[in-house]
Amino acid sequence: MADRVHLLRDFSQTTLLSVDIARVDTWHRPGLLLIGDAAHVISPVGGNGILMAVQDAVAAANRLVPAMRRGTATTADLAAVQADRETAIERVQAKQVAIERQVGRARERGRPIGPPPLLKLITALPGVRGRNARANAYGPNPPRLDLGLLSSTLH
Question: Domain total for the chain?
């Protein structure tokens, strides 16, 4: 493409990947569990897509390993994974929609895209900056892998 880059005069001549922030109503059927983008699409805004998928896998392991060991993994076990994760997914998606709307309004008005001055000032405070970084890095209600469930599997 190097021989054509000179044809681009401004950013409006490019396109961006269109991502619909959505989720399916039910993540499971007998013998099937959807997680990650198969269950809920996370926008690239905030870089949380892979985080949410990995956390879905952790929640699934915590719920399904014991059930599978008993030989009784049921649809209720699959539904429990969705119940464990759905609120966090809804919160992340709602935040992404709000950010995308804010950016869209700024672009329509020809304003710079960035946080407002007051937010910049507040997030300059080390405690606030760290809390916001952790919230984005781990998302809401991050599950912890129950290593006790997996220990006998690893031996």
Answer: 1
Q: pTM of the prediction?
A: 0.76
**104 within some domain:** no
Place of tokens 């690893």: 154
> Distance between CA 123 and CA 31 in Å, rounded?
46
137 in a structural domain: yes
Tracing tokens 């001055």 back to the chain, one arrives at: 117
Residue 24 CB contacts under 8 Å (≥ 6 apart), including other chains: 34, 39, 40
Instruction: Please tell me the distance from the alpha carbon of residue 24 to that of residue 27, in angstroms, as a whole number.
Output: 6
Phi, psi of 103 (to 5 degrees): -65, -40
Least confident of 33-42, 45-54, 57-66, 82-91: 45-54
The residue range of the domain holding 39 is 5-97+112-148
